[in-house]
């Protein structure tokens, strides 16, 4: 099969749309390794408040963090819809993040994403790097590196 060379305007990315509270967020699917149901999280002493602990995922120990707590929101309330999204981060290995619900996968082109302008010195804790428009819905697109930036050295 011959591959077509695409311009940046026509490149589309897939995002997993998750809910945290009443808001929708998109996670670049290239970071997502797995989505698992909530399970027992073993606490780790003296960890940051947003670091919930670790889980054993098929023999692999995976640290788990609360995106809600990381963003300064209320503590997690676990329901049947709560999920742990396992992210594969090159330098750091696997990391789980807790979300309230996984909704769908959407494909967004560059023309459907508005970049968020921010001052790097002032807004180093900006967790959003763009807003995706999917029909009438707006989806805040996570900057995964700023979310996971501090908890694993």
TrEMBL record:
Top-level taxon of origin: Bacteria
Cross-referenced PROSITE patterns: CHEW
A Pfam family per the record: CheW
Domain CheW-like: 12-153
Name listed for the protein in its UniProt record: Purine-binding chemotaxis protein CheW
Native organism: Roseburia yibonii
């Amino acid at each position: 099969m011959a591959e077509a060379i695409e311009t940046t305007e026509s490149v589309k990315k897939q995002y997993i749309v998750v809910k945290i509270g009443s808001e929708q967020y998109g996670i670049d699917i290239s970071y997502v390794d797995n989505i698992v149901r909530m399970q027992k999280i073993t606490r780790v002493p003296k960890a940051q408040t947003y670091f919930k602990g670790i889980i054993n995922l098929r023999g692999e120990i995976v640290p788990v963090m609360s995106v809600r707590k990381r963003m300064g929101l209320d503590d997690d309330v676990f329901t049947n819809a709560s999920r742990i999204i396992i992210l594969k981060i090159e330098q750091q290995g696997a990391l789980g993040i807790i979300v309230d619900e996984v909704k769908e996968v959407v494909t967004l082109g560059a023309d459907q994403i508005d970049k968020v302008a921010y001052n790097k010195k002032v807004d180093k804790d900006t967790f959003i790097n763009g807003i995706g428009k999917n029909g009438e819905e707006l989806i805040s697109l996570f900057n995964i590196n700023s979310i996971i930036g501090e908890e694993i050295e």
